[in-house]
Amino acid sequence: WAKVDGKNRWACYDPERNAREIARITLSAAMPAALERGEFYVEYQPIVRLSDGALLGAEALVRWAHPEFGRLGPDRFIGLAEETGLIVPLGRWVLATACAQAAEWAAHAARTGGPQPSISVNLAARQLVEPGLVDDVDQILRAVGLPPASLQLELTESAIMGTTGEPLGALHKLVDLGIRIAIDDFGTGYSNLAYLRHLPVHALKIAGSFVEGLRADEPDSVDAQIVRALVSLAHTLKLDVVAEGVETRDQADRLTALGCDSAQGWLYAKPGPPEEINRWMDQH
Ligand code: C2E
Ligand code: MG
Ligand code: MG
Ligand code: MG
């Protein structure tokens, strides 16, 4: 215990908490130079159609190859990047990288005659309030020659639900360009269903936490009933449903039975380098 300012106020000195705070600040401060040096990279995870396992698209997931701490997942740094605003240039870089990659897949599909996978990119709430977003997206698509319909932007439920005014205008402009919007981690936030009806949205992604509880021997578990309700809600609103975090065949079968359209998860593939999507395109 230490006396803070000579008055009757005391602060608890917790060395572990202190170390975590220092690590946070260190990471946060290192991010701009890391972006300059090219320490961030993107992995891609297939999104497949449940009925036949066909490749529909891929989600871009950012990682940081930190010179000292090794590979860091987005849960370690996206929140920090949102706090400092670095998410704006970092998010723009992810978007440009992923769209360039998707344009390459489109060219590959044109050569081989296969279907062209779409690309899903996560968008932070902070990016949606940035005035330059719509122009950035438009410019990136033109620069790499990717049709807007091949791009899906994912916003979490909490990011999209509070959206009004200019950011909502930006969302409508993105949709006017021909881009698709998905609500990520659906079911974990506080959705205003009346409001959802009026949002320009094309797909719901059911959070992995609901998928986790699906079992073949418990067809009417609470999780199964929640997923059934979410699928029904989505279809009523004419939205596609993607299930996240599908790890077992059992879960995939349950999801198919519950009417879910598509899925993503370790059962099909972990996030990996872009070449793995090329292999998927050639094999399936
Ligand atoms: P998300 O968008 O919901 O992405 C799905 C997460 O589930 C990813 O975690 C993915 O690796 C993980 N996952 C995929 N299949 C399975 C599975 O079968 N089981 C389990 N347990 N997990 C699975 P990841 O890559 O750690 O990303 C975490 C979150 O970070 C993402 O959640 C997204 O919200 C955020 N994120 C990732 N990349 C970006 C980005 O470029 N920009 C922004 N703003 N956020 C990003
Ligand atoms: Mg996502
Ligand atoms: Mg998600
Ligand atoms: Mg998530």
From TrEMBL:
Residues 24-284 form the EAL domain. It comes from the Bacteria. This is GGDEF domain-containing protein. It comes from Actinophytocola xinjiangensis. The lineage of its organism: Bacteria, Bacillati, Actinomycetota, Actinomycetes, Pseudonocardiales. The chain holds residues 390 to 673 of 673 of the full protein.
